[in-house]
Hints:
By secondary structure, this protein is of the alpha/beta class. It has ten helices and 13 strands. A hairpin with a 5-residue loop joins strand 2 (about 15-20) and strand 3.
Amino acid sequence: MKKTDVVALGELLIDFTMNGESSQGNPLMEANPGGAPCNVLSMLTKLGHSTDFIGKVGKDMFGEQLKNAVDEVGIGTTGLIMDPEALTTLAFVKTYPDGERDFSFYRKPGADMQLRADEIPEDLLKNCRIFHYGSLSMTDEECEGATRKAMDIAGASGALLSFDPNLREPLWESLDKAKEKIAYGMSKADILKISDNEITWFTGEEDYEAGVKKLRETCPNLKLILVSLGPEGSMAFSNRAKACVKPFLNPNTIETTGAGDTFCACVLHYVLEHDGLDYEEEQLTEMLTFANAAASLITTRKGALRVMPDRSEIEEMIKG
């Protein structure tokens, strides 16, 4: 039996998000714990799964805040390194009226970029059911080496590999380089969660089903592909079936930070509770309905990592 349900590797950072204005008209920024991999783990932990994180923060005030937040929500920290020589990565998030965002990163370099291959906890990866990763840990040669090593160890040990590209264009030397590294991440994955704009960018196809077909041709190992469509809902493709589910549009939405991560976590939750990945349309629909509802709930909250919805809230939204 594997000891840990999901291990994730990548960025753990502070998301500075707008929270009103001062009396002088200056923006007030709230320091929210964030980072896609830990957001995914937080939702999974809320749903009762055992989780652990591999990554690096600085041994500074922000690193301490992040360590405390991860401990608070119950994510394991076997692979979390607090480096006294590094500075914790910061992201400043501008939110638009429709909930969409722009990011400015303070990461030249940030602690998350400095994770080394020799710092990877091999036993943790050998004893997990799913290993989840993104592309931000491939933007720099050093952390890319750590990510590739982790993929290899987890894959060789029989874990499912889950990949969310989570493209952040400002962090890449070029989009060609981003495409090259993301292609490698996809080539190793069993499960792919990709957004509508990412699949169009990566495949050149405006039609999402045509894009999925192209992904399958280049990455035949992909067994389950999820396409998040924002306010249009989501789609899922197994080797046997496909499904498309409408969103739960929420009038109380304030920002979309963490929505994709919450969605991804709920998909992995479904995978952990059901054998195999070769789902029928009915199963894909059930999976997407739960994931869409959870993603809708997180858009009503500031931040993500510390405020994930619980199962009863999600089920209530589905009933409603």
